[in-house]
Structures are given as C-alpha cells and as structure tokens.
Amino acid sequence: MDKFVIWGGERLRGEAEVSGSKNSVLPILAAAILGETPSVIRKAPWLRDVDTMLMILEATGVTTKRSFDGDVTIDPSTLENCEAPYELVRKMRSSIYVLGALLGRLGKAVVSLPGGCVIGPRPIDLHIKGLSQLGATIEKHHGYLIVEAKKLKGARIFLGGPFGSSVGATVNVMLGAVKAEGETIIESAACEPEVADVVNFLTKMGAKITGAGTPTLVIEGQKALHGAEHEVIPDRIEAGTFMIAAAATGGDVTVLGAEPRHLEAVTAKLKDAGAEVSIGDKRIRVQASDARRATDLTTLAYPGFPTDLQAQFMTMMCVTPGVSRIVEKIYPDRFMHVGELTRLGADITMDTNSALVRGVNGLSGAPVMASDLRASAALIIAGLVAEGETLIHRIYHIDRGYMDIESKLARLGAKIRRLKSD
Ligand code: EPZ
User: Does the annotation count 318 as an active-site position?
Assistant: First the structure.
C-alpha cells in the first residue's frame, strides 16, 4: 500500500486548481443510465471512486469510455442487467445511487447492501422509504436489496431523518421519480450543491424538476429521458481542504476554479479563525495572519459547515492558541482522526459527538494511519504543519477523492512524496 512522507514546516504559497466534484460526478454517472442515448460528462475527476462507479455501470452492460481530459461517455443503450455485485459495492457506499437509477430505467434493481463504515452507522432507511412510497416493493435477500416496481407512481415524500436531510436518499428518490407516472414532491430534500448539479443534469436529459437547492423538489415524471452533455461543478470539499491547509500552514494560496457561493460557511469560519479571505470570479484567496484565533464549529447540512471538512478544520485548531469546540451533527462518530492527531501531539478531549481542542505550540511528525478519505486529508495538513517527518499509511483512501493531491501540494511548496508499495 502506498504511503505519503511529508516534511513539515513549509508555508503553502501559490495557486491550486480545483478538480470536478467527486460527490457530484458519482450520482451523475448513475443518472446517465436513465437516458435512452449516450451522455458525456465533462470534468469528471480521475479518482478511484469514479473507477468503481464505472465498473458497476459496466457490470450492468452499460458501455463507458473515459478520456484523459476528463470526459466520460456513458452509453446506456446496452444496459441489460439490473444487478450491482457485492465485490464492487463494498468498495464504495455511493454505489447505492444505482438503486434509484436501475429502478427508474428497468423497473428492477438488485444491489448489494452497503456494509459498515468507518465514519459511523450509515443507514439507508430513507432511500428505502422514499422508493417504496413511489410504489416499489423492497426485499432483502442474502445481503442484497431487491427493489422492483411494475409502475412507479408519483407521491408526496418527506425525507427528513434523525440527522436532517439526506443527500443520497434525495438523489435516489429523484432518480426513480423522474420516470414515475405523475408528480412527486420531496419535502426536506437535501439542498447540497451536488444535489442541485444532479437536478441540472437530469433537466438536460429531459426531466422536469423544480426547486433545486431548496428543501422542496417537485418532479413531473417522464416516459423517457435522453442523453445529455454536462460539466460537473467544482469540488467544494477539495477547495475547502486547500483553503484550510493554506491557513493552517501560515500560507497564502489562491484556489482556482472554485465556486465561492458553495463555500460561504467555510469562508466565514476561516475569517472567524483570523484568516483573510478574498473572493473573486471562480477564485478564492486565503492569506493566513499571525493572529489565529480559537473558533467553535458545528457541522450541519448545507449551507452549514460541511462534515467533510470537519477533520481538516480540527487539525488547524490543534495548532491555534486557545480552546475550540467542534461539534459533529451529521456523523456523530466521525472522529477517527482524533487518535492519530493526538499521536502527533494534539491535545483533544472527546465528549460524545463533540471535541474540545486545546491549541498546542506545534505538532511533531510521526507515523500515522489514515482511516477514511477526509481523515487522510486532515493528516496531510497535520504533516504539513508538524515539525519533522510524518509518514501517512493507507493513503489509498485519499486516492478515492482527491485528484493529484501530492502534485498540487508540491506546486504550493509542500515537501511531500508518495512512497509506492512494492
Ligand atoms: C453524502 O453521503 C456524501 N457522499 C458524504 O461525503 C457526506 O459526508 C454526506 O453526504 C453528508 O454531506 C457522497 O455524496 C457520495 P447523507 P450520504 O445521506 O449521501 C443519515 C465524503 O467524504 N441518514 O446525506 O451517504 C446519515 O446517517 C463522503 O466525500 C439516515 O439516517 O450522506 C447521516 O447522519 C463521506 N438514513 C445523515 O443522514 C438514511 O437513509 C446525512 O447522510 C440516509 C442517511
């Protein structure tokens, strides 16, 4: 397994280009199979999760083609099989998006149930509730979900869960509803930009949807959809990771190709923490100041501060004077990074879903273990600020969601090298 070795202490400076959004492209690739003709998805990031989604689509008979400039062509005219096998689904939870897409296209989906997850329990009860309200029957057999409907029928569906709205359930229900007979109204829909991006793509395919980006989506089902061309939105979590890395290392970084509107909570929190943030057209500049301040943070559904940046922000707070309280409201157990940050010298006390971070003067490099995608990003930031050498094991997690991260960081002055496994 590859590792990263980082020699800390460099202030990041320069420009970093953001790739297309992982969490947009995955549902969009699944949505493309709802069309009768091919779709072309532009700016698809070159990531392991994208590879996995393409393999799942190919397992259903869909033809896929990928070019080095980021275009992915999906030809669903050869779709023949409604099963997404365990060997592929177990690699990535967002495989669950093929549930709604296969149901909408073929009237049947057999998808392996996603298993446990290191960031805590990740139920799919809301996906199931929504699809069954569209008229699908749902059974579980030998680790597989079998979802079937002779005819999907529009319905009024409330999708709020114990932790608010669900991105995945909103998308899955929408993928069924665009092919259902009549009108579907989804209440408490997720407002994340990635959901709005899926709506934009489906609209290009001929779907009729209003309310993108709001908690109420109204969908007028269509008999058939066609292929479309679409460019995915920039990855706001990758952009936010560079923004936080800039502030944490005392640097000055301009993130290019980002959508500032998608990062308002992050911008506000960085300013609270003492950084200077200036916004331009598709660019955000973060300049660290010497007066970094402790800052409390609560993760929330969009437009709140994203859970996918909690670990990275916590890392910055570890080396910020004062006491910061970080509350996780989306995944109460998403704190696997805490133990590793503590190995580097951080002072963090956990209390159920909140962490009390007492800023220390500095971290000191050590070998650490990445546990998931965003925890890996946090450990990279920790390595960049730590004194000496940090060795990060299990970086295959980072390859799932950050394209070319080491070259992008190296261009900003980071001393980082990938050690390839034999
Ligand atoms: C998406 O996951 C993202 N993944 C996650 O990013 C992100 O952390 C999450 O949204 C929240 O923003 C993709 O887009 C591929 P949810 P998703 O359903 O859709 C609860 C990353 O690092 N819930 O919005 O699976 C759930 O347990 C990943 O890129 C139910 O209770 O998340 C959580 O508390 C990690 N029942 C909350 O809702 C359900 O049926 C939000 O989850 C579904 C979810």
Answer: no
